[in-house]
Design a protein that fits this description.
Shape: elongated
Structural class: mainly alpha
Helix content: over 70%
Number of helices: 5
Number of strands: 0
Largest sheet: none
Order of helices and strands: HHHHH
Amino acid sequence: MKKFMSIAAVLLLVLSVGCSQEKEAKGQEKPKSETSSDKNKEKSAVLDFEVELGAKLREYHAPFNAYAAALDPEKKTPKADLEKLAAAAKDSGEKAAKEIPELKVPSSLTKEDQDVFKTAFKDLSQSYKTRAEGLGDEAKTAEADKQFSAFAEKVNKIHKKLGLIEASFVSEIQ
């Protein structure tokens, strides 16, 4: 009987240790799911914000696209119309350069990601300013494109961190 009791005690001890380790493991998994949930919320917030930003960029960029299309020699756009389109593009670029730094970044993003967007907006704003100042100048257009790319690269660092595919802002504005 003594042997039976000691074997039962050992089995009970092994069973209780095993169960306590399982509870600890389960307790450790919870923060992972919370972290995953937080990351999903941030992904959603970034993507929602970028949808709104894309709409704003299309609005700013539409006059530039109209002007570029009118420059096609096959269209034979009258000079007066080209001047109107150029003025509209310049006004839009100046408006964008002024408004972009004032865009509100969602507070649901991490402070780090908010700062990345705010820094990226400086490049984006400068891109529109350069584009408006150098309308029709290929060198200025190339410089504006470079500044726009710098904006996109900064934002895509957030995408990479969150495991999202790269954003293509260029395709948004075309």
